[in-house]
From TrEMBL:
Residues 31-274 form the Radical SAM core domain. It comes from the Bacteria. One of its GO terms (biological process) is porphyrin-containing compound biosynthetic process. NCBIfam families: hemN_rel (TIGR00539). One of its GO terms (cellular component) is cytoplasm. It holds the Pfam family Radical_SAM. Transmembrane segments: none annotated. This is Heme chaperone HemW.
């Protein structure tokens, strides 16, 4: 997705213009962080592009002029300074969570990741128990770099494992070896990280049941306290989609994906990891990803970086995607925001139901209207909602309900 986007201030068909100074409506800043406040930092650099990836990421060849890893931390800090001005009269509480994602954040020097975190602390302050996460590709970290990140204040790391099968990794265009992810997880523990996550992808063409079973075995053996597992989604415009259109690879099977999910639930539950969101398992309550919970429960966050999304007080906006355009706007003293939307009551309700229903804690039935409650009754009768949870006034998905979560949402918010 390289290329320069529209000139500032910019607008998308489904969004309104973001003011050049990035200012927000007064109604959005009356209670910033009332449900919690986090910061997301997007690092758009990758050493190579995986065949399934449609994220806002760029290899060196795709970047073109005007953007570089070397100056990136300073550019992010410039947006942070703008954010401080925007929220100056209504500062948020200390930051509960920081999540550095990408891309491959650990392609930046550990010192740059440390400077970004220090800038957030200096701007708004970090809560005493703040969760600070960075994503990483397994081949992009070393025992030494992990120790530097931990010393800088990073408490949690999320490693992209995807699979333990060399054949599956090859189809996904992953560059690390089959055993590198679990080795990196052990190195992160040795470096002092409090929480370590491994990401899995299931349902890749050619993946056998025994391949996924081996992946789960390696994850469990690594002793991590958090696992994320997602079904492969084939996005238009990716190399993987092109290979499928040419008939080189079969399209993913929903039935296979369901079998893989059931296998993940069985193996992870037996190892002492409990689901707390449809695609996420944790060993303890403390191991749950608090940053993602912040998203799922409607809290506020500021997203720094090209393509990053933010949400404050019912206003959601997103930045221009290309790193060059992003840097140019900030250098000119302007917001990098491309467009924004103010969520209506109905939109906010739909998102609340959709996200909270995916949590193990479920959704209060009281937030549903008469049509939604009728839908909940049908889901209960179909075995998609837990009877004990329902009796306690909550819509909580059963295991079968997790497999059909999107259908349940459509029944609760028709």
């Amino acid at each position: 997705m390289p290329g320069t986007l529209v000139a500032m201030p910019g607008v998308l068909p489904d969004g309104e213009t973001v003011p050049v100074d990035g200012s927000l409506p007064a109604t959005a800043t009356t209670a910033v962080g009332a449900r919690g406040f986090g910061v997301y930092v997007h690092v758009p650099f990758c050493a190579s592009r995986c065949g399934y990836c449609d994220f806002n990421t760029y290899t060196a060849a795709e970047l073109g002029g005007g953007a570089s890893r070397e100056g990136y931390a300073d550019t992010v800090l410039a947006e942070l300074a703008l954010a401080a001005r925007v929220l100056g009269d209504s500062p948020p509480p200390p930051v509960d969570t920081v999540f550095v994602g990408g891309g491959t954040p650990t392609l930046l020097p550990a010192d740059d990741l440390a400077r970004i975190l220090d800038g957030i602390d200096r701007t708004w302050g970090l809560a005493a128990d703040a969760e600070v996460t960075t994503e990483a590709n397994p081949e992009s970290v070393t025992p030494e770099s992990l120790k530097l990140l931990r010393a800088a204040g990073y408490t949690r790391i999320s490693l992209g494992m995807q699979s333990a099968s060399p054949g599956v990794l090859a189809i996904l265009d992953r560059k690390h070896s089959a055993g590198r992810a679990t080795a990196a997880a052990l190195e992160a523990r040795d470096a002092g990280f409090e929480h370590v996550n491994l990401d899995l992808i299931y349902g890749t063409p050619g993946e056998r049941a025994e391949d996924f079973a081996a992946s789960l075995e390696q994850v469990v053996a690594a002793g991590v306290d958090h696992v994320s597992a997602y079904a492969l989604i084939v996005e238009d415009g990716t190399r993987l989609a092109a290979r499928m259109k040419r008939g080189e690879l079969a399209y993913p099977s929903d039935d296979v994906a369901a079998d893989r999910y059931l296998a993940a639930e069985a193996a992870l539950d037996a190892a002492g990891l409990s689901w707390y969101e449809v695609s996420n398992w944790a060993r303890t309550d403390e191991a749950r990803c608090r940053h993602n919970l912040l998203y799922w429960t409607g809290a506020d966050w500021w997203g720094l970086g090209p393509g990053a999304h933010s949400h404050v007080g019912g206003v959601r906006w997103w930045n221009v995607k290309h790193p060059t355009t992003y840097a140019q706007r900030l250098a000119a003293g302007a917001s990098p925001g491309l467009a924004r939307e103010v969520l209506t009551v109905d939109e906010a309700h739909m998102e609340d139901v959709m996200l909270r229903l995916r949590l193990a804690s479920g959704l209060p039935l009281a937030v549903l209207d008469a049509t939604g409650r009728a839908g909940a009754e049908r889901a209960l009768a179909d075995g998609l909602l837990d009877a004990d949870g329902y009796a306690a006034g909550r819509a909580v998905l059963t295991l079968r309900g997790r497999l059909l979560a999107d259908a349940v949402v459509r029944d609760l918010v028709p």
